[in-house]
Amino acid sequence: MFSLTSVLDQITEFFALLNGFLLAVAGVSLVVAGVSIFNVMLMTVSERRGEIGVLRAVGIHRDQVLRTLLVEATLLGVGGGAVGVLLGTVGVVLVALNTELPLEAVLVPTNAFVALGAFAFGATVALVGGLYPAYRAAWEPPVESLRG
């Protein structure tokens, strides 16, 4: 015979383990996404070396180049975060509609904080991923940039 509390404890332990596993997988995917954003920004800056060199040669200050590249990186993160939140919301609603799960169980007001957190995290990761490439491009001498 099993008592109800022991069965509930086992179920709670299983879900805690599953939650930890899913958090680990999500963490790895976020690190991979951050590295991908960093790589894209680094390649974008490398391909635009000549353009940045011309801007610097005609008198655009380092701070303006840095600001421009950081705004581009942040806009990429904001766009990606918005698309991710939208697709995630649509996916969850579709799953709820195609199962016996009531829609009220999914559309809980506290889930909006999760969506906002994911959006903010996407924008932050893009900004951090763009810091080094933008700094590197802004501080490169114009003559070196023009040589390509």
Helical run tally: 6
Structural class: mainly alpha
Q: Helical percent range?
A: over 70%
Q: Which oligomerization state do the chains in this entry correspond to?
A: single chain
Layout of secondary structure:
Elements: H1 4-47, H2 49-57, H3 62-97, H4 103-106, H5 111-138, H6 142-147
Helix pairs in contact: 1-5, 3-5
Question: Could you describe the 3D structure shown?
Answer:
This protein has 148 residues and is mostly helical. It is 86% helix and 0% strand. It contains 6 helices and no strands. Helix 1 (4-47) packs parallel to helix 5 and helix 3 (62-97) runs antiparallel to helix 5 (111-138). The longest helix is centred in the first third of the chain and has 44 residues, at 4-47. The chain is elongated, with a radius of gyration of 23 Å. The protein starts with a helix and ends with a helix.
